[in-house]
Amino acid sequence: MDEVNEGPPNRELYALLNLSPEASDEEIRRAYRQWAQAYHPDKYQAPHMKDIATANFQRICEAYEVLSDPNKRQIYDIYGMEGLTSGLELGAKLDKAEEIKAELDRLRRMKEMQKMSAHFRTSGTILANMSLPHCRNGDGLMRGMSMASEVQSQLSKRNSVAIGGNLAVNGNAGGGVATALLRHEISKVSSIEFMASAGLRALIGVQTTRQLSAHSDATVGLAMSLQDGSLNLSNSWTRQLSETASGHIQLALGPQSSIAVGWRKKDERRSASGEVKFGTSSFDVAAHYTHHLSSKSHGRIAGRIGSSTLEIEIGGGRKVSKFSTVRWLYTIGIQGIIWKFELHRGGQKLIIPILLTRHLDPVFASGALIIPASLYFLLKKFLIKPYYLKRNKQKALENAKKTSAQVQEARATAEKAQQLQQTVANRKRNRQLEAGGLVITRALYGNHVILNKMNSSSATSSESASEVIDVTIPLNFLVSDSGQLKLHEGVKKSGIMGFCDPCPGEPKKLYVEYSYAGNQYKVLVDDYEALSIPRGVPRI
After folding, report:
1. What sequence ranges are listed for the domain J (predicted)?
2. CA of 194: how far to CAs of 184, 223, 486, in Å?
3. What pTM value is reported for the model?
């Protein structure tokens, strides 16, 4: 499987010296001196230790040679080691610092243009309405269909354009609309949009948005219909109520004036929203709640009541691949009993509502909910789940076979590096123990699933030992004299001296247990996440 927490490229040399990618020249020199003193071959008498020190000392010198040279570091940051050994290698064509910088600027601009040209985002929806009552009456299963599509493109850093359209057919009637929108970013806190549409709802309009404060923004829009010349003025205000919640007020003035007040709350596991809307001759109240049961499945309940609407919706969905999600929803209301099937893939949606009956019969309504739900759970338990478990296990075994030799070699290299760190790490540990400072009591790096379980239970099985590596010694080695440990953001931890990647292709985390001032703590961080301890974390 692809590693989902893939981070910034070209950071291995920074990890080797435990440096931030933004490290200054002085910080690079200081880190090199520290590592060179620890790994200098002259410090070791035993032949095997001298060989280990020589190999690691050479790695440190190579990293310092690149990072201490401004030109080489610039090339490495953009193109990695391949850039240093390819066409950008210092030679006759690029023998001056000014020429190298000019070439890098040109290539960087070219890369930005290529990246910008790839910034085309497409989205589309196909809605196919079906009706069993119509089919029984001989009018056919299809009741209507609509299609909508939009293409967005980033023209420059400040300008973007969106072009879209939709077509709808309902019985013997149909129509379509084509729209175009140009967005310009005036500043970091404000933007303006120009829009136009042709078709059933031909209009032109302008809309501007401005951030009023760190937690609120406002939008004002004016549109004119090209059919009857009527004007529509819209205003909306949005405010961040907390880290996970926001509220909004929307006001529309025109032939169909309305006011709406709503809120939205979303975190990692759940999302909820509600809105109350009053129009000239109507009102509408809607709410929904979605709960993520796992990383792949979710449940949903929603309700809506208004002048001409009264319905409750229950259902759920499951992620079937990296980009695809399927969903089944059951709706009961004054319009009847409806099944809705949805397929989401990337920015594309296929939605198929099926009207089962217009009569609200209790027995039929119960069966329409219980039978498909029971069938899904039976299929999930006895067919879908066993299949995915078997497939994932097979993939894991295949991946382990392919990378076993590479992992064994990397583990051996890490263990050799830890042998050289042992003496200094023990000395720092004893010094911190005497002062009541920072002592790393246990540290493991590897498969995120295993370490997530450890963080909850503080226990691990022997079966999972092959997918994690003990890094207690390297972290004690990295503790500063002032009793601080810092690992930098954006740097993959497998590149740190004494670390290795125990499970290539799998997302990884770092789990650390430590003592400080007589108290025990634990912390779990992602592969590219910064770590700075001691800090206020839950005690064990």
Report:
1. 12-80
2. 9, 10, 48
3. 0.61
